[in-house]
Amino acid sequence: MTMTPQIEPRVRDRRREVAVPRRTHAATSGLAVALVLAALFAAWTWFLAGPLNGAGIDQSLNRGYEIRRHIDVLKVMDRVGQRAVALPILGAVAGVIAWRHRSMRPVLISVSVVVAVNLCVLILKLWLGRGAPLDHKPSFFVDGQMYPSGHTSNIVSVYGTAAYLVSHYTAASRRLRVAMVAAVGLLAVIMTTTSLLLRWHWFGDLIAGFLVGGVVLAVAVAIDRAVPFESPRAASTREADPTADDPP
């Protein structure tokens, strides 16, 4: 009878000691991923605009594809990357999870990601000023607004955030997590294909958009994982039943 009070605190203390390094490791990994993606974006931009003339790849893919019979379908498919479609989906996911936990944290994460990715894309578009495919102007600093693509950045950051919230803040199964990652990948393929066929973006713009969206998502995940979170709903349940968290 006298050993039970001594063992219980040790078990709980050990759990606390393990939880902090795991949070730290997750945050460090997320920031490392963000730095790698940012470096890839810089290298990709230099490749396209630099002396290697990487823009030749974009010009080779900028063709007058025969899409007249499918143009209406392509325009509908292209909307998956628009904020008018992506944001309501993210808002619904964040809202439901916030309600379940009785916490605004999922909503704050979502708002931060949306503001950050749109601000980054806007600044880069205005600064780099790349011309449009239909004008046959792959050059940078020509008062264009093509680079990077806002649609592809939304695919990664907005839909990726929705997938992260479900994965991290619910009891999502491994199968569901894999399905969500596959769904984001499928949307990325659809977005790339439709934009190229409609000639609304250079191929390089689309890749850059994925990288920018990835950076924002990785930073958001790293910050979220670094800050401890305890669901108010779980806390209230524990207060109602103090033995709920006791080890068996």
Averaged pLDDT: 86
Query: What is the helix tally?
Result: 9
Point out poorly predicted stretches: 1-20, 237-248
The dominant shape is: globular
Kindly state the number of beta strands: 0
What oligomeric state do the depicted chains represent? single chain
Rounded to an integer in angstroms, the radius of gyration calculated over CA atoms is: 23 Å
Percent helix range: over 70%
Approximate strand percentage? under 5%
**SS-based class:** mainly alpha
Domain module count = 1
- End-to-end distance: 15 Å
**Series of secondary-structure elements, N-terminal to C-terminal:** HHHHHHHHH
Task: Describe the model.
With 248 residues, the protein is an all-alpha fold. The protein has one domain (29-228). It is 73% helix and 0% strand. It has helices at residues 4-49, 55-61, 71-78, 83-101, 105-128, 150-169, 174-198, 203-226, 232-240. The chain is globular and about 55 Å long. It starts with a helix and ends in an 8-residue tail after the last helix.
Topology:
Layout: H1 4-49, H2 55-61, H3 71-78, H4 83-101, H5 105-128, H6 150-169, H7 174-198, H8 203-226, H9 232-240
Helix pairs in contact: 1-8, 3-7, 4-5, 4-6, 5-6, 5-8, 6-7, 6-8
Quick take:
The protein is mainly α and 248 residues long. Helices cover 73% and strands 0% of the residues. The chain has one domain.
